[in-house]
Design brief:
Elements (H helix, E strand, L loop, with lengths): L1 E13 L4 E8 L3 E8 L4 H9 L5 E7 L9 E8 L3 H4 L1 H17 L7 H16 L3 H4 L1 H13 L15 E3 L4 E3 L8 E3 H10 L14 H18 L9 H5 L4
Antiparallel strand pairs: 1-2, 1-4, 2-3, 4-5, 6-7, 6-8
Helix pairs in contact: 4-6, 6-8
Length: 244
């Protein structure tokens, strides 16, 4: 059966001397791995340019359910985000997003709301400037909780903010839980603020490097409690030296 899929390029790894494996998170089928001819031919170089990380592509394929690796019948670019490749700060954020999404979406099914959020967010990053770029990954992670169904419960804390945020329960609480997966004080307050921010008003979030790093660590701890494979990420280290 011939299928047309719309995919976000997550990663490309060497398969053998003649081919690579490209993983797409597709709107229609979730994650799908493809085997793509490598080498230095003109066609191979064009495919590499079209399959830049975090590009949005359209592919047609003859579905072979018995095979783990699929093959393109055709490939075209729907959208690329030029500034995330050329701007060093945006490139660092993009490296983080690529690693995070590659791990998060390894087994995740197709989801229209999730797909739309990711692609729309990449367009925002491509157009961002200054302080909005510095906080982009924080706001991205905070708002991604909605499409993933793990958004923190803030309804009970509208009148007064409890001092603790339980990462396991995804909820604020008056008393410290009997485990260590908790944010408190200023970090809990920022999580509450993040629940009310998006890319339009995210410039209001003022963080220094230390606060931003601690908040990122807390958000990644939160995600790792809900999804496997997010431990020992390497790309957050790249972000540590950015954004005074």
């Amino acid at each position: 059966m011939i299928e047309t899929l719309h995919g976000l390029v997550l990663e490309r790894v060497r398969h053998n001397d003649k081919s690579d494996i490209v993983s797409l998170y597709t709107r229609e089928r979730g994650r799908v791995p493809f085997v793509v001819q490598g080498g230095q031919s003109r066609g191979a170089r064009m495919r590499r340019a079209m399959l830049m990380p975090l590009s949005v592509v359209e592919v047609t394929m003859r579905s072979r359910p018995s095979q783990e690796l699929q093959r393109f019948s055709s490939l075209s670019v729907v959208r690329q985000f030029p500034s995330i490749y050329g701007d060093p700060v945006k490139s660092a954020v993009a490296i983080f997003l690529r690693e995070f999404l590659s791990r998060l979406l390894r087994e995740y099914p197709a989801d229209d709301m999730l797909w739309e959020y990711i692609v729309r967010s990449l367009a925002v990053l491509d157009a961002s400037e200054g302080h909005s770029t510095a906080n982009f990954h924080i706001i991205f992670l905070a708002n991604l909780t909605g499409p993933l169904g793990i958004r923190p419960d803030i309804e009970r804390s509208r009148s007064s903010l409890p001092p603790y945020f339980d990462l396991r329960a995804a909820a604020f609480c008056l008393h410290a839980p009997l485990h260590h997966d908790v944010l408190r004080g200023e970090e809990a307050r920022i999580v509450h603020l993040l629940s009310r921010l998006d890319f339009r008003n995210g410039g209001r979030l003022r963080l220094n490097r230390t606060a931003r790093q601690r908040l990122l660590e807390g958000l990644l701890r939160f995600y790792s409690l809900h999804f496997s494979g997010l431990d020992s990420m390497r790309s957050p280290e790249i972000l540590q030296s950015l954004f005074d």
